[in-house]
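User: Could you go from structure to sequence for me? I need the amino acid at each position, not a summary. Structure tokens:
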């Protein structure tokens, strides 16, 4: 069997998301195993070693901060913790009645790890009201001035 053109092989390997051992086996099958210093093999390795930036993470929610003070009505809340380097921050995902344009996309799901907001929305009474079909709002997230010596914080306030 005649080996395919190298460009086609690289194309195949790039599209197939093969494991490292798998693509090396395919290269060997096509007689390229003796050319580890070849330009072609180096190019193939470049194409199969991908950056995490090549993969876009699609989330169904965006940061509550993207609302930039706009009012909204809460129709559902669920826990949505955030993990970074082994540290877990409590968070919530909020579903709103309204759709807001965020980065050119209409959105109605927002997440937050802001302590005051999370504490309010994790309250069992809030969860029960929402589970019973009630809505909360309109509200908006706003920076609140801390009392003497404290740190300013974001909280939900009536809109």
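Assistant: Here is the amino acid at each position, in order:
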């Amino acid at each position: 069997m005649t080996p395919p053109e190298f460009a086609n092989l690289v194309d195949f390997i790039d599209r197939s998301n093969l494991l490292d051992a798998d693509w090396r086996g395919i290269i060997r099958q096509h007689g390229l195993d003796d050319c580890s210093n070849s330009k072609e093999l180096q190019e193939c390795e470049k194409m199969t070693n991908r950056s995490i930036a090549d993969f876009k993470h699609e989330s169904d929610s965006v940061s509550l901060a993207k609302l930039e003070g706009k009012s909204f009505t809460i129709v559902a809340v669920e826990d949505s913790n955030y993990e970074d380097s082994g540290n877990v921050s409590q968070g919530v995902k909020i579903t709103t009645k309204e759709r807001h344009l965020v980065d050119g996309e209409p959105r109605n799901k927002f997440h937050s790890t802001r302590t005051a907001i999370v504490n309010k929305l994790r309250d069992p009474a809030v969860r029960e009201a929402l589970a019973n079909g009630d809505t909360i709002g309109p509200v908006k997230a706003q920076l609140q001035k801390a009392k003497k010596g404290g740190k300013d914080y974001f909280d939900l306030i009536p809109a």
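One structural detail worth keeping in mind: The chain has two domains: 6-54, 62-158.
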